[in-house]
Write a structure and sequence with these properties.
8-stranded parallel beta sheet, 6-stranded antiparallel beta sheet, globular
Amino acid sequence: MRHLPPSHSRPLRQRVLGALVTALLCAGGLASPAVASSAPDTVTPKADNGLALTPPMGFNNWNSTHCRADFNEAMVEGTADLFVDKGLKAAGYQYVNLDDCWALPQRNADGKLVPDPVRFPNGIKAVADYVHSKGLKLGIYTSAGTRTCDSTGLPGALGHEASDAQQFADWGVDYLKYDNCNNQGVDAVKRYTAMRDALAATGRPIVYSICEWGSNKPWEWAGDVGNLWRTTGDISDNWASMLSILKQNLPLAAAAGPGHWNDPDMLEVGNGGMTDTEYRTHFSMWSVMAAPLLIGTDLRKASDETYDIVTNKEVIAVDQDPLGKQGTVLSSGAGRWVVAKEMKDGSRAVALFNESDSPQRISTTAAAAGLPKAAAYTERDLWQHRTYSTAGTLSATVPAHGTVLLRVRADRAWAKYPSAVDTGISGPLLAEAGKATGVTTTVTDLGRVPALQVGASLTGPAGWTVKALSRASAPAVPTGKSLSTSWQLTAPPGTAAGDYEIELASTYRSASGERIRSGQPVPVHVVVAPPAGSPYLSDLRALSSSNGWGPVEKDTSNGEDQAGDGKPITIGGTVYAKGLGVHAPSAVEYYTGGACSEVSAEVGVDDEKDGKGTVAFEIWADGRKAASTGVLTNGMPAQPLSADVSGARTVRLVVSDGGDGNDSDHADWAGARLSC
């Protein structure tokens, strides 16, 4: 549902009179509407049209422009220019795709689609010709319904499949995104198969992208219908949304392959709602999943860092590997994900992904990734662009929300490369101003030969005291062993609560004499213990927060995507003055410092969604689930939820989507408070 944020309801047009719909559909050559999909359990995937033998790469305007006026001919042609000028074409990007709002609301007298003359004064064919002149391809959008998803109500293709497909072919379109709005309850397989056949009948090669939001499990039936199919609802430009979609798409690896791809939606890289670390994770994981790579940021405004991420050719090569395997999950405990992807040359791409809010060491082995037994291996870090050797352990201390992406192979020439060394730190790092905090660092040799002249260092912000309590250097560290150093870290009295960084670094010499230094910033949270009594969480500073739509709101409902746009918290008709308004998936974490005994709240779906929304609530204490609800729905009265958190340093409030997607999942922690 590209054009409806997760909190919005489906258009009312979907409930038009059945008799009129039946007449319309029969006129278009389809069977009468069916209320529910009758998709078969499995379909043998076939790339019948010979297209998209690797995942499509390109651009789509929706995430950056929606239907605003700056989506127009100049923007599209300017994007094609940037593909060439900024190296995107050279990196493999081909498709410049138009999303909704390119057409007028009404067809012409002949039933044909009419491009908006204000946005596209020279028509779509002229734009296609321009894009083709750059050696690129043009994509277009419509919906498998009577109208598209935009509230204006632009013409959909349901009942007009043959005519619209022929128009697209005549214009020189190379890619069709086919959405799911206003579908009138017609069977999904019938609707999407009708457009497949219409596109094939034109004789023009057009990549076919099915966008039915995963509602009818297209991975079970779309392999011989489309070249790619959306597996989830729409992505939003925030960590919680990206993470939720990632987790929904990962289990579907068996359905993907050349010509038929799982599509977890477009890229948000560069749109500003995530950090560069999170965007690198986004790009890494989409590549390991062999997902389509469709840039969703306005390239006219993109930063150098954004271009660096989306043009990383070594990461793109993982996505575009011709074997066409989607990566599979090897492990995922405690937010430490290992995902491995088989490559055509026999190597493996291995993603070490840290879901958590603190640095974590994530490990696997070459054997677990599917590589044969060997004396040693080489691993190429695809973001550092450096190659190391390893005895077989693949390990890294990965920053919060970060991903280390490796390409690993059995390699007889492993001795040419320095040993891989993992430099790690214990976490989370929470410090009260004026009080010493203990920290432990490790420097671990993963190579076949010892790391020599090994050292570790830790540097704090100006005015902070950092003291080593044990040795911070060693003449050699053997394979599989570590230099472990205890440190004492103290923020000066009066340091304001907030997020700071310390610099962790290690140095060592390889067997060939090369001196290697590795450094990384590590976040430290300066925290304040909660006051004694029963403080409301909405009056305290959160350590971290993530939210499925817009920001977490204090003392109001979630509202929409802007800060401060919520309403009074209301559950089952009862209004609450205090609390947190969130949208699934959501997590909000607080520092309790071992001084509190209980978290309590009244929880439920906010009334602002008029009967929609299903969620589940959880309270976690120091990584342990302390309490939870079952699935709660809109209209239910608030449910009391409390948890014993005695001795915990942190508590986390989590809301999941109830297992049915996160449409309209506005959740309230009404009156949420601590007992301290």
